[in-house]
Amino acid sequence: MSELDIRKLLKSVIAYKASDLHLVSGSEPQIRIDGKLIPLNLPKLDGKQIEEMCYGIITDKQKKIFEEEGELDFALMVPNVGRFRVNYYTTLGDIAAAFRIIPLKVPTLEDINAPEIFYQIIKREKGLILVTGPTGSGKSTTLAAMLNEINTHERKHILTIEDPVEFVHENKKSLFSHREVGSDTKSFAIALKYALREDPDIILIGEMRDKETISAALTAAETGHLVLGTLHTNSASQTVNRIIDVFSGDEQPQVRAMLSTSLVAVISQALIPKIGGGRVATFEILINTPAIANLIRENKTHQIYSQMQLNQQQTGMQTQTQVILKLLKNHVISKEDALRYSNRPEELKNLIQAL
What we know:
Elements lengths: L2 H13 L4 E4 L6 E4 L2 E4 L7 H9 L4 H10 L1 E8 L3 E10 L2 E9 L13 H6 L5 E6 L6 H15 L3 E6 L12 E6 L7 H8 L6 E4 L5 H12 L3 E6 L4 H10 L6 H11 E11 L5 E9 L2 H8 L6 H5 L3 H4 L4 H10 L5 H7 L3 H10 L1
Parallel strand pairs: 7-11, 7-12, 8-9, 8-10, 10-11
Antiparallel strand pairs: 1-2, 1-6, 2-3, 4-5, 5-6, 12-13
């Protein structure tokens, strides 16, 4: 197997409008289309073949990191094909790889059918905007669309810290500094520590993985920066708890106070298969109104969900259940998929029965 073969496989990802390519020993190459894995009609690969293909597209430095750590994340630009986020890992001693397509065209808010409230929250001068959801739910795409909107209309210095850098933005009105963990900086936390000296207006944090990074993000949001970040949580209220729970008991009151003042919004999203092919994004939106801020500060986060359902015309908030119900009524998604992707299936089931 050669580098040419991996290019052919990556071309097939583009041709089939797939999102991912998987190479695992003992299986034929598989691609993910509309969330489902589909084997390509090709011979099964063994570990040696995958190793030859994978080592053919990385540097000696990357090879050394992979052999020492057993994991490697990087971005790959394949001329005339596209850009990919790549992860190498080992399974039962053999190398395996996952390639995720990163569209070369940066999406707009119109492209992702963003609700009107998205346009409002990105005009904030400071604060924390979180986009959450499981892996593959389109978080990076949503954040790229938000930054694209700012880039189109405002003169800002936008600093992105990612592992690896995904969407590469051209400077329109704004100035971008893309920093990749591993090559441009050692870690998210270190990059954030020095970020405030780099005169950014907006900071994008690819992933808020640990206490240090979350703490630095909260500080940056408090000190006059608009901070955008991602978390792997499934609902807006769960996100608030996840941030607070990262800290020890005696630190939590201070973190709740910081979060209650600096949080702008939590957008929790999922991609649900559409009837007839393709996928549709559902956005659960939590806006930090004075009432929500009060619940965070007073450790009453269990009441956030019911608060989200009040005065939605004024606040711009919506729950995932409401969005899913609307899609069901409009025959965009099936009942089975609605329940499968719901983060409150019991509530949804009761509402479907009442229809």
